[in-house]
């Protein structure tokens, strides 16, 4: 009786398992901990979801940027190769032709002078070098070459394949290194892989272009 009166005076009742509970239906310690645990799980799930959304958006954005860059490169390269012609020094149309490098002459800025254009692989990047002829008589000074990076993260080492006048759509490319005077058509392939350890899968871009000034059977 005395204990009961003491409990009533203090405003608390005792429970056999969870200890003291305030009158009026308050939360027990277990209920409080349970609520904190649920709240923590919800916050963690929302954080993970937000992170996944951000990563996905970054992949999509990066992928679209890569697609645009590759298309611009192929469009420009195709136009320049198609209009390639002999150098202002009298040199042949194509100067260098390997699997990872292509050097030719073309008037890319319509100023009446043919620039020396060099596309080449450096590490995993596709670079472009341009030399304008200068002097009298005109010469191509390699010290004046202006180099720019076109695309990064290339996954392929064979950028260029070369075909002769007998190409019919299924013919194998010329053996490497090709005999430059035999070249009539060039196939360009770019494979981009932003991160080999993560999705999306590598993207492949390819085109074929014939040199207008060397066309015979093509």
Throw out a few tags for this protein.
218 residues, alpha+beta, five-stranded antiparallel beta sheet, 10 strands, 27% strand
Provide structural commentary:
The strands form 3 sheets. Strands 3-4-5-6-7 form a 5-stranded antiparallel β-sheet, with helices on one face. A 3-stranded antiparallel β-sheet has the order 8-9-10, with helices on one face. It has one domain (52-214). Strand 4 (101-106) and strand 5 (115-122) form a beta hairpin. It is 29% helix and 27% strand. The protein is built from 2 helices and 10 strands.
Q: Report the structural category.
A: alpha+beta
Strand order of the largest sheet: 3-4-5-6-7
Number of strands: 10
Shape: elongated
Distance between the termini: 112 Å
Beta-strand content estimate: 25-35%
Helix content: 25-40%
* Helix/strand order, N-terminal first: HEEHEEEEEEEE
How many domains make up the 3D coordinates?
1
Radius of gyration: 35 Å
In terms of topology, how is this protein built?
Elements: H1 2-10, E1 12-15, E2 19-22, H2 29-82, E3 94-97, E4 101-106, E5 115-122, E6 125-131, E7 146-151, E8 160-163, E9 185-192, E10 203-210
What does this entry show, briefly?
With 218 residues, this protein is α+β, with helices and mostly antiparallel strands. Helix content is 29%, strand content 27%.
